[in-house]
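note to self — DONT lose this again. spent like an hour looking for the file last time. sequence + predicted structure for the chain T wanted, 144 res
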Amino acid sequence: MEPQTVGVFAIINVWFLLMGMIMDAIPAMTIFVPVLLPISNSLGIDPIHFGVVVVVNLMIGLITPPVGALLFVESKLSGVPFGNLAHRAMPFLFSMLIVLVLITYIPQLDLHPGAVFLRGKRDMKNVLDKFRNILAIFAAGILS
């Protein structure tokens, strides 16, 4: 991985962690991925790898205090006070940050399982084309 790509990924990680802390995942992806995906493509970052990194960042942000939107949901469902739950979630948060760094800078960790699963069946371009067609049909159904 080139030093420029490492720096861009570091900025993307910090940005999406912060966005995950203050807003929900779907609006964050809707707003920022169309802006950042062409930049990552120009650096040679695989779009699937970029998507996995974005989703993991936002998931970690959603369970990170001070806002911790998912911690509030978990607190209500379990009846455990928010402060106690946030304190008990910290070891898991640190382990998720380690996994985030690993999958960010070792793309084979998230790209290889899909390649093994699809080996001999179809290449990734065909899968992405079919997925785009499904999304187009879904969007046409919603808009009509």
